Protein: SDR family NAD(P)-dependent oxidoreductase
Amino acid sequence: MVLPGLGAYAASKAALNMLSATARRELAADGITVSTILPFVTATEFHQTLRAGQVVSAADSPVHSADHVAAAILDLIHTGNAETSLLPESLTTAH
Structure:
């Protein structure tokens, strides 16, 4: 996502995604599966601290519970898929 003011944060996440994709290929021969989850806003204490209790989300975008994100992670573990996204469709389509 392109979010003005969060360039360094976005760049670090992009680097982590590439590192995970590379590790997936490098470790596959050893039977190790690496998967990536792309969450959106998750209702956790992180947002309590960061925004003094306000969870900020786009008007048409959901705030996911930690349980919802955990279920998606478990699904990744079970399927072994490379990636899953919880991002709203409005943020994943090219404009």
